[in-house]
């Protein structure tokens, strides 16, 4: 068999196309070019210090150099052979261990770079990159100059002996027309500070006039020595204010030796929305990787913003986010654990601060406690709820009420709270989002406590019955009242309860009301709908209009009902029902509006009639 074998070809790379790909799809902004340059300089110094721990470690960025910049380091430098191998080959990196293969763990141990594409980012802002380098590994080798252009061509030349006195590398960028703004002196200093504030080697920006500005402020504030714990707390709080522009409620030290992570979690002083997470700042070996790393902390810990420096977490290729792997998951758990410890510490020894924390973040904590058992366990007893004792923590409330009753709606709470409180019942308003669900989980956290839904029967069962003689005396009035209330599917009962000023109370629950509404609809619906509505129906308790026998008006009405005309008694009962309805704050239906209107007009008519009669009598 003959084969028509063609010679092997090497891929050709269109550098412009590659740079466009990086700038539009990998990096969020052209500004990352400076991070890549500083990072190469840091890595080069790290490599040199592996050879000579006493070697100088200095990075100097000069601005206003013919519209571009230079970045000079005292790092390990490159020989001519290195330049061919590493600079001129995209994807090749000197930071991956001896074989230059894909064992990235070797690179991660010491260096920030690993992918061999960082330098390309400079082509987003520069037309030409010049690298002048002298190797520290081979001090006798001549210094070299590599000039790479954005059209994909490059040239190398050896420099005369003595032209570069010390080992190290200087990179010069000649701006592109569209990228020049990123190389302006003010912008460069700002970017250097943004990315390099925690770099471990000295970084200085020098402008055209020779003015020097220090970029980094190391060691990080959490690693410095302080005279007292208070001085340390103040320094950390001041740092939080400078970085995040808020005075933190408290600061939490973070230290996870496994991934060389240290830093601080700053507790937000104002409410945060769980879906709008605060950005955590993650530095990798000092270099800022991201200021939006939400993935660093568990979802429930949205009330902190962290600044950390780590050696062991992996960056993505864009180096703008953390690589989501098991290590990151473990770090997230460890930070979560640390924040829980802080909360436990507060609960044990600083209740004033815990209260301040919950004052600000209770809503958000409630939202998350539903899904996070540990958080629920820790904070449920301390969370504030609206109750018949005012707004108190659940723990405090449960201590004074053996049975914690919880309403389903805000309106139910408003309706029964004063009466239930007077009858000695402890009721929590379960109408706000999450509250009822959380209160029902109290027995999980506080074994032995009892929580029950508050139904109308519980309230009426706790009201004092009136004595039989009084009930008998009021019988004609009650019979009339029942006849009227029956039109609204409501039962009537006579009880004695506090406060005396409330003549009548309507106890009803939302489900029963829906059930009655369904029955109403199904009565007027066509066959199909009647079938569907009917299949949903179940027997619902009727609402109860409870008249207060202690109230003077009710007593008077019971009295006059025996003699007064039926119409007046009816209007009075409708008015009482209407007023109880308004007090219950439930939504009014058209029939309710009509009733309120009718009873008001009716009473007005009686009042004017009575006035007329009185006038007539006076005139006679
Ligand atoms: N300032 C420097 N001093 C010495 N060597 C350098 C310097 N800058 C770049 N290099 C060499 O050029 C290689 C390629 O650099 P480049 O920035 O493209 O990739 P990298 O830093 O290895 O990886 P990454 O893409 O993750 O940044 C480096 O591995 C290093 O060998």
UniProtKB/TrEMBL annotation:
It comes from the Bacteria. The keyword Chaperone applies. InterPro entries: HATPase_C_sf, Hsp90_fam, Hsp90_N, Ribosomal_Su5_D2-typ_SF. The keyword Transferase does not apply. Belongs to the heat shock protein 90 family. This is HSP90 family protein. Keywords: ATP-binding, Chaperone, Nucleotide-binding. It holds the Pfam family HATPase_c_3. It comes from Streptacidiphilus monticola.
């Amino acid at each position: 068999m003959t084969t028509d074998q063609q010679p092997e070809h090497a891929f050709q790379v269109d550098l412009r196309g590659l740079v466009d790909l990086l700038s539009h799809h990998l990096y969020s902004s052209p500004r990352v070019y400076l991070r890549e340059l500083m990072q190469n300089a840091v890595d080069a110094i790290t490599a040199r210090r592996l050879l000579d721990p006493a070697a100088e470690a200095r990075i100097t960025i000069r601005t206003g150099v013919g519209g571009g910049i230079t970045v000079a380091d005292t790092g390990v430098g490159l020989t001519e052979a290195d330049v061919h191998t590493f600079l001129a080959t995209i994807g090749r990196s000197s930071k991956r261990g001896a074989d230059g293969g894909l064992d990235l763990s070797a690179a991660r141990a010491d260096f920030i770079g690993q992918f061999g594409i960082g330098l390309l980012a400079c082509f987003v802002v520069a037309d030409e990159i010049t690298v002048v380098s002298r190797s520290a590994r081979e001090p006798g080798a001549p210094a070299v100059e590599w000039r790479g252009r954005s059209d994909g061509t490059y040239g190398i030349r050896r420099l005369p002996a003595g032209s570069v006195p010390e080992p190290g590398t200087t990179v010069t960028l000649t701006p592109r027309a569209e990228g020049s703004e990123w190389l302006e002196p003010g912008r460069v200093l700002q970017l250097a500070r943004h990315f390099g504030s925690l770099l471990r080697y000295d970084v200085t920006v020098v402008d055209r006039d020779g003015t020097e500005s220090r970029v980094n402020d190391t060691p990080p504030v959490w690693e410095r020595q302080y005279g007292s714990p208070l001085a340390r707390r103040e320094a950390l709080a001041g740092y939080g204010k400078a970085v995040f522009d808020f005075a933190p409620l408290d600061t939490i030290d973070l230290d996870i030796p496994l991934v060389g992570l240290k830093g601080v979690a700053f507790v937000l002083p104002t409410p945060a929305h769980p879906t709008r997470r605060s950005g955590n700042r993650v530095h990798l070996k000092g270099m800022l990787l991201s200021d939006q790393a939400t993935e660093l902390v568990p979802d429930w810990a949205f009330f902190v913003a962290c600044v950390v420096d780590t050696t062991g977490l992996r960056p993505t290729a864009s180096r703008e986010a953390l690589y989501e792997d098991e290590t990151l998951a473990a770090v997230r758990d460890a930070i979560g654990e640390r924040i829980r410890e802080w909360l436990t510490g507060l609960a044990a020894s600083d209740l004033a601060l815990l209260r301040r924390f919950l004052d600000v973040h209770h809503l958000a904590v409630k939202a998350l406690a539903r899904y996070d058992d540990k958080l629920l366990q820790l904070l449920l007893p301390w969370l504030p709820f609206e109750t018949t004792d005012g707004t108190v923590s659940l723990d405090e409330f449960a201590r004074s009420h053996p049975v914690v009753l919880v309403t389903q709606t805000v309106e139910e709470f408003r309706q029964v709270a004063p009466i239930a409180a007077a009858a000695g019942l402890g009721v929590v308003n379960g109408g706000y989002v999450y509250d009822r669900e959380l209160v029902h989980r109290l027995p999980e956290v506080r074994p032995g406590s009892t929580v029950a839904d508050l139904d109308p029967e519980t309230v009426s069962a706790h009201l004092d019955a009136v004595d039989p003689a009084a009930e008998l005396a009021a019988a004609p009035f009650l019979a009339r009242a029942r006849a009227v209330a029956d039109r609204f599917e409501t039962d009537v009962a006579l009880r004695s309860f506090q406060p005396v000023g409330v003549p009548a109370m309507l106890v009803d629950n939302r489900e029963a009301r829906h059930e009655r509404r369904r029955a109403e609809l199904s009565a007027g619906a066509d066959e199909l709908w009647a079938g569907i509505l009917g299949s949903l129906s179940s027997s619902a308790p009727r609402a109860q209009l409870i008249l207060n026998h202690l109230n003077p008006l009710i007593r008077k009405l019971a009295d006059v009902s025996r003699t007064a005309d039926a119409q007046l008694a009816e209007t009075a009962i409708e008015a009482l029902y209407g007023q109880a309805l308004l007090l219950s704050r439930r939504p009014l239906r058209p029939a309710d509006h009509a009733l309120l209107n009718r009873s008001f007009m009716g009473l007005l008519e009686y009042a004017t009639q009575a006035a007329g009669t009185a006038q007539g009598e006076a005139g006679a």
